[in-house]
Design brief:
Elements (H helix, E strand, L loop, with lengths): L9 H27 L7 E4 L9 E3 H13 L4 E11 L2 E10 L5 H19 L5 E6 L2 H5 L7
Parallel strand pairs: 4-5
Antiparallel strand pairs: 1-2, 3-4
Helix pairs in contact: 2-3
């Protein structure tokens, strides 16, 4: 006797195989995501090509520390951090500041741009930068810079 139809367990087996394949795909995507985190960070801010006089390499930690010190000690900021990322093979400084309540974003931008200009003059090269200004919960509970 030849039987050409589907057995009752075939659809359940196909469903289980599909679920296992979907879970395997999700796990692979999560592993790729985990390994990509922090991938674009760089430790070199300037890495010139070699010349007859030598090669210039400036570590990003030097610029990060100098800029963070210049910005973090300002009374209008609650906190500040600086990190360096590669964007299209170009090092870019990311400056994140949390401004106190009552401080204008325009004033924050001017202060950070002043520090960046001083850093550019020190390094002899213009470094691209991204400024991230926040003023969330910490800014709401911190004292204002202006008396009210």
């Amino acid at each position: 006797m030849v039987h050409c139809g589907a057995t009752p367990g075939d659809s359940e087996q196909l469903g289980a195989i599909a679920v296992v394949a979907l879970l395997a795909l999700v796990i692979c995507l999560l592993v790729v995501f985990v390994f990509r985190q922090g991938h674009w960070r760089t430790t070199r801010l300037i890495d010139d090509s070699p010349t007859e006089h030598g090669r210039t390499i400036i570590q990003s930690a030097i610029a990060e520390d100098a800029l963070a010190d210049a910005v973090a000690n300002r009374p209008e900021f609650i906190s500040a951090s600086v990190s360096t990322f590669q964007v299209r093979k170009t090092p870019v400084l990311k400056v994140s500041v949390t401004a106190r309540r009552g401080v204008s974003p325009k004033d924050v931008t001017a202060t950070v741009e002043s520090a960046l200009t001083a850093l550019d003059e020190l390094l002899g090269e213009t470094i691209p930068a991204f400024l991230h200004i926040t003023g969330g919960f910490r800014a709401k509970v911190a004292r204002p810079t202006r008396p009210q």
